[in-house]
Amino acid sequence: MAAAPASWLFPLLFLSSVFAFTSPATITIPISPSTHHYSSSDPWKILNHLASLSLSRAHHIKFPNTNVSLVKTPLFSRSYGGYSMSLSFGTPPQIVKFIMDTGSSLVWFPCTSRYLCAGCNFPNTDLTKIPKFIPKLSSSSKLVGCKNPKCAWVFGSNVRSKCQGCGPSNQNCTESCPPYIIQYGLGSTAGRLLSESLDFPNKTVADFLVGCSILSTRQPEGIAGFGRSMESLPLQLGLKKFSYCLVSRRFDNTQVSSDLILDMGSDSGDAKTPGLNYTKFVKNPVRSNSAFQEYYYVILQKIVVGDKHVKVPYNLSVPQSDGNGGTIVDSGSTFTFMEGPVFELVAKALEKQMANYTVATDVQKQTGLRPCFNISDEKSFNVPKFIFQFKGGAKMQLPLANYFAFVDMGVVCLTIVSDNAAALGGRSGGGPAIILGNFQQQNFYMEYDLDNERFGFKQQSCA
Ligand SMILES: *[C@@H]1O[C@H](CO)[C@@H](O)[C@H](O)[C@H]1NC(C)=O
Ligand SMILES: *[C@@H]1O[C@H](CO)[C@@H](O)[C@H](O)[C@H]1NC(C)=O
Ligand SMILES: *[C@@H]1O[C@H](CO)[C@@H](O)[C@H](O)[C@H]1NC(C)=O
Ligand SMILES: *[C@@H]1O[C@H](CO)[C@@H](O)[C@H](O)[C@H]1NC(C)=O
Ligand SMILES: *[C@@H]1O[C@H](CO)[C@@H](O)[C@H](O)[C@H]1NC(C)=O
Ligand SMILES: *[C@@H]1O[C@H](CO)[C@@H](O)[C@H](O)[C@H]1NC(C)=O
Ligand SMILES: *[C@@H]1O[C@H](CO)[C@@H](O)[C@H](O)[C@H]1NC(C)=O
């Protein structure tokens, strides 16, 4: 993929090299690890950074800010450890970069030449070069009105009562949709909703709802929400399914990308993609928590660690009537999160089967990951296999690089995080019990079959 753009107005020629058409009903977009933001080349510090990001992300997924007076979708990833894509908006088109996020739904970009981003001074990020969308250079930019049903997608159906002069009796209301503010643990973003055209080669989607953020903290890129709410990219485009293959994170400092495929096919029917294993998506039974409704829930029943079958307790495996429990697939989390009771069983099974290696307690302290083993004296290194087994029998056997990170000096650490009272602000047990992060999805082809409400995957090399 091309380097970060220095200007927002791109020659149209460039577009055809960014996007490729594979079939009339399919749009393919390159997707690559987001490369801003490592503050260090020290692998321990990077792991520690990714571990704490994964935990704070888990916190926001599990305990979304349910104060809906401002906005319906409070959950947001930060832009680290994520995967980036480019989209082209406006007339003439401007290209902007986004983190692809299946854990949230609004699509928003850094917007206007005055976009302010506090806490965005990352080592590899030149603030002045953050690609921004400039609405006044686009003839198709419109502010979304308060009466526009799309305003209610984000703010809920009673939003009109919040717009002055837009009561049910006034059909002439010209008020625009209120500003959105999205808050998350270590950052936030705020702006106005726009209606814009979203351009693909040979296809323009008119009146796409997109957030024009003018003020953010810690957001050097926009976010493309692929979640299950109306405002998400897949739902606005009416996709039948979408799929991606995430290249290995060891390409983080290169320009390697892989494909995100948007499928608007007319009648794919219920045919499965050859070679994929499928499990059903399930809905969270609690409809009043809008954040839980936008997650992609699946049922993970068992985690096989070598010869040990760790059964996920039923109330953690299946979303319960209180909304808690269940597993979600999240492209915006880095390391997979597991609720304490499951994580401890997995860690114990691993420690028991790797008892011949020294536990590297220092490295555990420094990375925030565990268990870590010192394998520097070993001629060969035997690791138990690691398999996620979903309802219906589909099995996802992880390659070693998806569950162990190799720290230098001959130490390896399990790349799964868990909560402790401190990390989750004293709360635990709420929200999804397991969050399947992108580190565990590397080199898998992942298909979100929305028409048939199922999740398919197979191992493959993505680069
Ligand atoms: C767009 O459509 C034209 C004419 O149908 C075709 O020649 C061209 O290859 C298409 N472009 C892409 C990127 O698919
Ligand atoms: C919810 O938002 C309103 C308006 O911003 C604020 O006054 C109130 O304190 C918030 N409540 C909580 C529990 O955060
Ligand atoms: C709405 O606009 C129409 C035409 O401009 C006008 O006749 C009518 O009085 C307006 N209604 C209200 C409630 O302002
Ligand atoms: C998983 O995929 C493999 C390869 O296509 C297939 O042989 C196997 O039957 C599938 N298993 C399930 C449970 O779908
Ligand atoms: C540990 O090492 C001993 C002696 O080499 C060997 O017999 C045993 O199988 C090893 N255990 C594991 C769990 O690898
Ligand atoms: C790993 O073990 C080797 C040999 O016992 C030792 O020299 C090295 O310092 C250890 N590494 C760490 C990170 O503890
Ligand atoms: C699941 O059930 C166990 C025992 O029945 C209970 O201790 C635990 O709190 C429950 N967890 C959740 C998240 O409901």
Describe the structure.
Helix content is 15%, strand content 32%. By secondary structure, the chain is an alpha+beta fold. It folds into two domains: 2-263, Beta Barrel (Cathepsin D, subunit A, domain 1); 277-459, Beta Barrel (Cathepsin D, subunit A, domain 1), CATH 2.40.70.10. The protein has eight helices and 29 strands. The strands form four sheets. It has a six-stranded mixed β-barrel with strand order 3-4-11-5-10-9. A five-stranded mixed sheet has the order 15-18-27-19-26. A four-stranded antiparallel sheet has the order 17-16-22-23, with helices on one face. The chain starts with 11 loop residues before the first helix and ends with a strand. It binds 2-acetamido-2-deoxy-beta-D-glucopyranose (NAG) (7 copies).
Q: What is the molecular shape?
A: globular
> What class, by secondary structure content?
alpha+beta
| CATH fold descriptor of the largest domain | Cathepsin D, subunit A, domain 1
Trace the largest sheet across and list its strands.
Answer: 3-4-11-5-10-9
Distance between the termini: 12 Å
What is the CATH homologous superfamily assignment of the largest domain?
Acid Proteases
Uncertain runs are 1-23, 66-79, 421-427
Helicity range: 10-25%
